[in-house]
Design a protein that fits this description.
Layout lengths: L24 E2 L5 E3 L2 E2 L6 E2 L6 H17 L6 E6 L8 H10 L9 E7 L2 E7 L8 H5 L5 E3 L5 E3 L9 H5 L5 E3 L27 E3 L14 H5 L5 E5 L4 E4 L4 E3 H7 L3 E3 L9 E4 L11
Parallel strand pairs: 1-6, 5-16
Antiparallel strand pairs: 2-15, 3-4, 5-12, 6-7, 8-9, 10-11, 12-13, 13-14, 15-16
The structure holds iron/sulfur cluster (SF4).
Length: 286
């Protein structure tokens, strides 16, 4: 895990625990496990291709969570198609520009991953976990989860304990040690959905551009990716779209391409799905 004694202004948030940001990370089933199949109707997730009991249990929890989510109008998720990512990092840059982030804050970060001697890029935003450890450890309830599945931070009540940063297994959070850089005049005051400008002494993270979603607009990383790697999806309406305007039936897309989730075994139930495609084996024991 990243050395928390290092000032984050000097070292951006590190890679997923146990990995060195400068070394390609091993891609294995341990890190990125196949999880889901989906039914076409209504976007409800179903369980297919159970590879073991633990996976079946996880899928059961996912299915019930989605059933709950269907009570809401939307259940937002992302799909990241690793087959077409060229590692240009324009997703990172687009996000930084939109949220006027200091350069060390990469709310979506592209990690070098390794599989059988080959390196490939893997963008990692907040996983918008259905069981978010960051939320459970917040001593003042500043991190909350909307009924549409977005994990957000209320910077007005955040006391900067950084417990959430330690709890997040995806290193998705950043502490604002200093006043944020001067920002362009914003039309609206900061909100958890659009926390710009950020506040010194609080924690920031990827928000899936939650202020854009109700208007049918794409998150900055989605529209900024020239390869169409990143899809914003809705499990309720069963649709996902990328920055090239390619629209897919979400359930079919995930199922057909053996979508997986990152660090499935931790039980956080990410709402971010990956499509592998670099020859990675997703079979048991790989
Ligand atoms: Fe919280 Fe980290 Fe999960 Fe995002 S990825 S919801 S910050 S635990």
């Amino acid at each position: 895990m990243q050395d928390r004694t290092t000032h984050p202004e000097e070292q951006p948030a590190g890679p997923p625990p146990g990995n060195d940001p400068d070394k390609p990370q091993a891609f294995s089933r341990r890190n990125l496990l196949a999880t889901l199949g989906v039914t076409a109707a209504g976007g409800a997730l179903a369980m297919v291709n159970y590879r073991d009991d633990a996976q079946a249990a996880t899928m059961s929890r996912t299915a019930s969570a989605i059933a709950d989510a269907k009570a809401a109008k939307h259940a937002w998720c992302m799909v990241i198609d690793l087959r077409v990512c060229d590692g240009c990092k324009l997703c990172t840059l687009s996000c930084q520009q939109r949220h006027q982030l200091p350069k060390e804050q990469t709310w979506i970060k592209v990690y070098p991953m390794e599989h059988e001697g080959q390196t490939f890029p893997m963008p990692v935003p907040c996983m918008m976990c259905e069981d978010p450890p960051c939320m459970y450890v917040c001593p003042v309830g500043s991190t909350f989860r909307t009924d549409e599945g977005l994990v957000l931070v209320d910077q007005d009540t955040c006391i900067g304990s950084r417990a959430c940063m330690a709890a997040c297994p995806y290193e998705a959070r950043y502490f604002n040690w200093k006043e944020p850089p001067p920002v362009k005049k914003m039309p609206l005051p900061p909100t958890p959905q659009m926390p710009v400008p950020q506040q010194k002494g609080t924690v920031g993270k990827c928000v899936y551009c939650a202020d854009r979603l109700p208007n049918g607009e794409l998150p900055a990383c989605v529209s900024g990716c020239p390869m169409g790697v990143i899809y914003i999806g809705d499990l309720v309406t069963d649709v996902a779209v990328n920055g090239l305007g390619e629209t897919v039936v979400l359930s079919e897309f995930l199922h057909k391409n053996d979508a997986v989730r990152y660090k499935e075994e931790l039980g956080t139930n990410p709402r971010c799905y990956y499509i592998a495609g670099h020859g990675q084996s997703l079979g048991a024991g790989s």
